[in-house]
Design a protein that fits this description.
The complex is a heterodimer of chains A (465) and B (57). Chain A has 465 residues and is an alpha+beta fold. Helices cover 37% and strands 16% of the residues of chain A. Chain A contains 16 helices and 17 strands. Chain B contains two helices and no strands. Chain B is an all-alpha fold and 57 residues long. Classes of the chains: A alpha+beta (465), B mainly alpha (57). Chains A and B meet through helix 10, helix 11, helix 12 and helix 13 of A and helix 1 and helix 2 of B.
Chain lengths: 465, 57
């Protein structure tokens, strides 16, 4: 047997559990102890599922003892954002309004899939209320602190999930990304995050924000771990009308080969102008490592970002209309004011936004005729301080909350698969987006792996103090 | 310039009532949204461009 506290990473841990070198119960006990010790400093978790986790770990150990394979994620501890259903628990989505809802009858589909692959759910994780934010400063459940600097934001809206991975509280977490809510916290916390193609992973059993923009995806501390978790979650499900009926297309098996010989380009204009010097430098490091010599512009990006902004507000306002009418005082004030404003938008703006979406999609797909991957910074800056009201963008001081997603929003608006890779080129890390054509998560993950192998991208465990 | 009275009127037409204490925040956010909506309108989009659809029969 080996010491569980010295072993990290999804694939490494799962292999050790499958071979009987560590027990799943001892692994879960170790990580629960780490959660008890560090989460009071970070506020990643909204609930700890200790009994359930230990029971599931015992089942994994029993399978190993019986000579059966518990699966590729055997014994690996994970968490889910608090908008994922967990059986017998109310899905709050970061609100107090949802506390009146009945408890979920089953786990969210993709959480159940990773559990069937042997992973152990240890808790639910903090988020911006109803996923409408980029900082995880939640008026009801408190702010999640960045484990690399506790005075700074972990990003959002999946901030608790990202911070837990960065701090080694979980080996992976599952989050959601509507406008950047996986990619922004990945960037701020210095970890890997995957937002798959829209329609790839079924959202069945998660609380929605914007039906035609919501994506689910994982966080991890390496590209191979990200790919392994992603592979375990793939597959059609009838419960999500947007889920594509595609076969599983595993990314992990070819990850070492698929990143070679690709045609790659940097995104210029908007994607340069909206990033600060650190973000541009990080992107240049990635470009150099990949041998990129070409930049291309996507002229419709400003308009696409505006369209994503409008669709999000209008759809969110519509989704929460009844609660806004009857329980406005129960919302987080920052969420309430944005949702109410969205509920007042004229239909003309929303329809125009959806036409802009179609145009931008066509423009970007044209770019993929000549390129396999596109590269862009993930956030306008590294993690701001908690409570920081403004950030600098393109020489101007702008409100932080609506602008942290400037670089992520246009791309999720058209549903592209994107891996955020962490670059540690300053006091705090910053992310770079590896953007692939629709359904080519394998390409984005392979490039992320290549950057990791080259020593450009990395996600060391943070030890908050 | 959109002001709080405009937002109150729109809210009433939409069947929503905004607490006076919330009105400044909602108005600020609505102004931002209208600025973004303005970005969408120029240049004009050809009539053949349909809205992105998610409905599947």
């Amino acid at each position: 047997m080996i010491m569980v506290e010295d072993v990290h990473g999804v694939c490494v841990l799962a292999e050790a559990v499958r071979r009987g070198r560590i027990s799943a119960v001892s692994l879960i006990e170790d990580r629960l102890e780490r959660v008890r010790r560090l989460d009071p400093l970070l506020n990643c978790f909204t609930s700890i599922l200790e009994d359930r986790a230990l029971a599931a770990a015992a089942e994994v150990d029993a399978m190993v003892a019986a000579g059966r394979d518990p699966g590729p994620l055997a014994g690996v501890p994970f968490g889910v954002k608090d908008n994922y259903d967990v059986a017998r628990r109310v899905t709050t989505a970061g609100s107090i309004i949802n506390r009146a809802r009945p408890a979920a009858q089953a786990d969210a589909v993709i959480a159940a899939r990773v559990a069937r692959a042997g992973a152990i759910l240890i808790g639910t994780q903090n988020m911006d209320e109803f996923a409408y934010g980029f900082t995880t400063e939640n008026a009801h459940y408190g702010a999640t602190r960045n484990p690399r600097d506790r005075d700074r934001s972990a990003g959002g809206s999946s901030g608790g999930s990202a911070a837990a991975v960065a701090a080694g509280l979980t080996e992976f977490s599952l989050g959601t990304d509507t406008n950047g809510s996986i990619r922004v916290p990945s960037s701020f916390c210095g970890i890997f995050g995957l937002k798959p193609t829209f329609g790839r992973l079924p959202r069945t059993g998660t609380f929605p924000f914007v039906h035609d923009l919501d994506h689910l995806g994982p966080f991890a501390r390496s590209a191979i771990d990200l790919a392994t978790v992603y592979d375990a979650m793939q597959g059609f499900d009838h419960g999500d009308v947007a889920c594509a009926e595609r076969p599983k297309e595993p990314a992990a098996p070819g990850i070492a080969e698929n990143g070679e010989g690709l045609r790659a380009a940097l995104l210029s204009d908007w994607f340069e102008d909206m990033a600060d010097a650190q973000g541009r430098a990080a992107t240049a490091m990635v470009a150099s490592a990949l041998g990129i010599r070409q930049s291309i512009a996507l002229p419709g990006t400003r308009r696409a970002r505006a369209a994503a902004f409008v669709v999000t507000a209008a759809s969110g306002g519509n989704l929460h209309r009844e609660a806004l009418r009857t329980q406005a005082g129960d919302f987080d004030p920052a969420t309430r004011d944005r949702l109410l404003a969205g509920a007042l938008l004229p239909a003309d703006a929303v329809l125009q936004a959806q036409r802009v979406r179609q145009l931008y999609r066509e423009e970007v797909l044209t770019a993929f005729r000549n390129h396999d991957v596109l590269i862009a910074p993930a956030t306008p800056c590294s993690a701001p301080k908690l409570g920081q009201a403004t950030i600098m963008v393109d020489g101007a001081e702008v409100a932080a909350r609506p602008n942290i997603g400037l670089l992520t929003q246009p791309l999720s608006f058209i549903g592209l698969p994107i891996v955020t890779v962490p670059i540690h080129n300053g006091p705090m890390p910053i992310g770079v987006q590896i953007i692939a054509a629709p359904w080519r998560e394998d390409v984005a993950l392979a490039v992320a792996h290549r950057l990791e192998q080259a020593g450009i991208a990395s996600a060391p465990i943070a030890e908050p103090c | 310039m959109i002001d709080e009275r405009d937002v109150e009127t729109l809210a009433r037409m939409a069947g929503l009532k905004i607490d006076p204490a919330h009105l400044p925040g909602v108005t600020n956010n609505f102004r931002t949204l209208i600025e973004q909506a303005d970005v969408l309108m120029t240049p004009p989009i050809a009539g053949e461009t349909e809205p992105a659809a998610t409905y599947h029969a």
